[in-house]
Write a structure and sequence with these properties.
4 strands; alpha+beta; 20% helix; extended; 17% strand
């Protein structure tokens, strides 16, 4: 009985976001601050005290710290889809800076799209009868 040869390309799995796998979308976070401006004080405190812990929790993301004298502090996130997002950090406390970094880490980098007027659910096909709700009937739906 002859055995069938298994090629290496057949054993390859393709990464995809879904119920069994999650691919983080952020690939790089750049923190830019000024050494002298008082608005960068909380960002400098975050960099010196908390950035290493955040970097250890997210090993898939490259963290870069840049000193830009005379500029307000910003956090810039770069994503795998080629887009980037910038968040100014001058008005935040140290924990607020960490929350904004986490926001960049959790973001997908996709453009923000407005929902169409009057639509609550986006789908590829229209429903023939619309969206049913137990709140829009004469007698409320009871369980």
């Amino acid at each position: 009985m002859a055995t069938k040869q298994i090629l290496r390309a057949q054993l390859r799995s393709y990464p995809a976001n879904g119920h069994s796998a999650y691919l983080p979308q952020a690939r790089k976070i750049v923190l830019e601050y000024c050494q002298k401006l008082p608005s960068s004080a909380n960002t400098r405190t975050f960099i010196s005290n908390d950035l290493q812990r955040v970097a250890w929790q997210n090993p898939h993301v490259e963290f870069v710290v840049k000193q830009r004298n005379g500029h307000e502090p910003i956090a810039r996130g770069f994503y795998v889809n080629g887009r980037d997002k910038v968040i100014p950090l001058q008005e935040f406390e140290v924990n607020g800076v960490e929350k904004k970094i986490q926001l960049l880490l959790d973001s997908s980098g996709a453009k923000i799209k407005q929902l169409k007027k009057g639509r609550i659910v986006e789908s590829m096909t229209e429903a023939a009868r619309g969206i049913w709700s137990g709140l829009h009937v004469d007698t409320p739906f009871k369980i």
